[in-house]
């Protein structure tokens, strides 16, 4: 048998990523992993390094890639400041259950525990925001660590893995082991008696409700949920920022649990006698601060389906806990015969009708922004991807734009500002054939606006919509509620956003009327490359239909 020729550790590392199907790396270059950058030279046809302008943006773009592909988004950053910057995106991936692998250049092995230049113990730093954190000290174990990282990132509740790479290790030579198999996420279902118990509880229910959410959903799982809900006439809501899990035009879709939940959703949940939580953690935002469902025993009977056994019962005690991946579980549901759709259909139709009213801009007749987002919803294709960060502007987006296709909503459940533009960059590189929109408030956009340079450098086709009210709008809303007319720290001075974006080669528009927005959007959709539309907002408007007194 021929013995493979020795190979440099950095080259072997890149071979492992290629073997696992990764074709994009997001990162900011650093001297702590120079051999990896060298190993990427000449391999753009296999795997591309996407040079970003700040590590937080790089990690958020990797998160978007992981959300869209279901496989780990890859990010490389340097030690110390690079790692601390990237932690913002790692936290997003953890709370959103997104597969990701963050590689961090580390000090040389003979410098560890001396507080060398930019040295951090990453096991301690990332311990609460990653599924696994390790340091690869032995180059011969690179394949072992990397294949395990892919497996951990995609198994159970998906999430981020962090691997530290001592810079001297990357120069080591090793004899490569046989090429690894491509890792696939495991599939698993509950026992047949548990599935039968679930069916029996649905049959006994009078006012059931499915709440879908969480990570680990595949396009097949989303299609299966569509089929199951339609066949059983069961109403489906989604947890915070999970609107892409079901076509919002589906006759059983009734809205999403979010900040400022509409009264009809609160009433529907209060009247529900069987809540089927299909994938969400039932966290603070989705449960209105743990008040819509009171822990530890919620009002309705709870059936919690989750991919890891530790989560059901963590806050709310379920009547039935089922451990399954969403792909296998939803696919299995499509094999069920109808239970009693005729009994469920009237309530489902009534809830759908209420959602239709709430989703219409006519529900807030004097609101200045609702018609903008309603028009956006009316003209973009159904497979468009909307990326946003955090801020009150997102309430308009989530209320008046409907999501239709898998991956159409990329938004952090962690409430991280600045996600929209990096998320759109990750989406534009992953799905170049779809229309990509980054929607941001002025405060949110300025968190990661330097990534305009990344979009320009890589020639990406995406549209940025900035809603500018010259303040941190969400915080001002809380401030006005708790301390009326005592403004502190929430006012902002902004640049000319059009001139700023134009400096990066973007086509820009500033619109102050609906007709001007309609024209600008049409021109932006027809214009290839980077575009920015600025919408000045009356700062008195805090949310749809809610305005401060004059």
Provide an overview of this structure.
The chain is of the alpha/beta class and 550 residues long. The chain has 3 domains: 7-174, Rossmann fold (3-Layer(aba) Sandwich); 192-357, 3-Layer(aba) Sandwich (Rossmann fold); 364-547, 3-Layer(aba) Sandwich (Rossmann fold). Helices cover 36% and strands 18% of the residues. It has a 6-stranded parallel beta sheet, sandwiched between helices. It has a 6-stranded parallel beta sheet with strand order 11-10-9-12-13-14, with helices on both faces. Helix 3 crosses helix 14.
Poorly predicted regions:
none
Please provide the count of β strands: 22
The whole-angstrom Rg is: 24 Å
What is the CA-CA span between the terminal residues? 83 Å
Any key phrases for this structure?
Rossmann fold; 3 domains; 18% strand; six-stranded parallel beta sheet; 550 residues; alpha/beta
Overview in brief:
The chain is an alpha/beta fold and 550 residues long. Strand 9, helix 8 (219-232) and strand 10 form a beta-alpha-beta unit.
